[in-house]
User: Fold this.
Amino acid sequence: MKLTDLTITQAKDLLKKKEISAVELTKAYIENMEKYKGLNAFVTETPEIALEQAKIADENIAMDKARELEGIPMAIKDLYCTKGVRTTASSKMLENFVPEYESTVSKKLLDAGITMLGKTSMDEFAMGSTNLTSYFGEVKNPYKRNGEDLVPGGSSGGSAAAVASGMAMAATGSDTGGSIRQPSSFCGLVGMKPTYGRASRYGMVAFSSSLDCPGPITRTVADSALFLKVISGLDEKDPTTAPKEVIDWTKVLGSSIKGLKIGIPEEYKSDKLNPEVQKFWDERAEDLKKLGAEIVNISLPHTKYSLPVYYIIAPAEASSNLARYDGVKYGYRTKSPYHSLDEMYELTRTEGFGAEVKKRLLIGSTILTEEFYERSYLKALKTRRIICEEFEEAFKKVDVILTPSTTGAAFSKNDKLSPLEVYLNDIYTVGSSLAGLPSMSIPVGKDKNGLPLGLQVMGRKFDEETVYKVASQLELISQFDNTPSKVMGE
Ligand code: GLN
Assistant:
């Protein structure tokens, strides 16, 4: 078996038995990074750092002191601040920003022994679903549609492309309205957005602070469980993290789902939904029923407001979060001549931000003006509360909710989707983001063009356990083969 086809679970075992070394494993990934450069998944590659870490990993293994993810080659989305390694959020604004501190998530991963291969591309400041808005150029999906290039999804598109093509064994993503789940679905991977507060946002470049969640992008559910355990937990540097026990979710994988109630929300059955996705949704629900689960039809009537609410709250918070990029403290400063401080701000922000970011900042700051605040922002906050309450009510009746992850498979930029159609991509993911629920995308099959399709499992707050249990059954039933060398047609 090719080293870059191993999952974390398999690699851990082989490393422990000393059948492979962390150095050779890391080298195999570095080779693939070279080979598949054309996908443009990385903004910054750090092979030297990875090899240094791999040497230490091998020493630890030799002394039987292996840590939880010792020697596992990973990629980090380029919005996690990494000490001494450029962190750009795929923006010109941060093109040369080298943080002096480490984000909690990347620190936890490094402390657990990973080797860091590099920083992956994303939509600029995590705003998008295509990875077309990166300042460093578009990222390509390893899957093609009859030879045509497709988007990997976004905003964690670089991470997803890297994992699917065998350029990293796993990668961090971040999810504000779907940015872990949608690219995972588009690239045939497992994407987990944990409960808001399960893992720390400290050191992540902020987009929308009440929604941003760090999380894993992996090939299997077991890898996801291992990964999430490492990055979870209370962090004094992020007051929104919760003092919840971090459990070993791998223990529940494959266990019985007999008697479990699985909700199917009426309102998610949309005419926007690709019939092939609908078919998988129906079939997998039926499969879970055969395993003893009970399928329950539920209603989430305010679902139709999720998208507008998200696209009010997220830009509003972004306009406040991104106010810090003023050309003074750090990041880009205009090179053009200016005659006043205001002019310097204006030129810096005009030149430093891309079009999508500027659009959202304009929307966000307009929403927060006295004129619009009450009728848009406040209304959105109230509606968000209702959406949360509807989920709470639903979870009195069911244990998890099963929905599609996206309306269809990955698309091409030549499909010429309107901005609204691109925003519609998030229709299935934003609801649980607004409510802060754990939600996971699992690949369940392929469409007629051979492109991956995913289903989403949402759970009660901090009940990742049941989500993982159901996800593992979906994985077993679906037998989706995401072996990187096969995906790349090697
Ligand atoms: N696609 C959504 C957006 O454009 C979600 C992005 C995210 O989760 N970071 O805002």
User: Anything to note?
Assistant: The chain is about 40% helix and 15% strand.
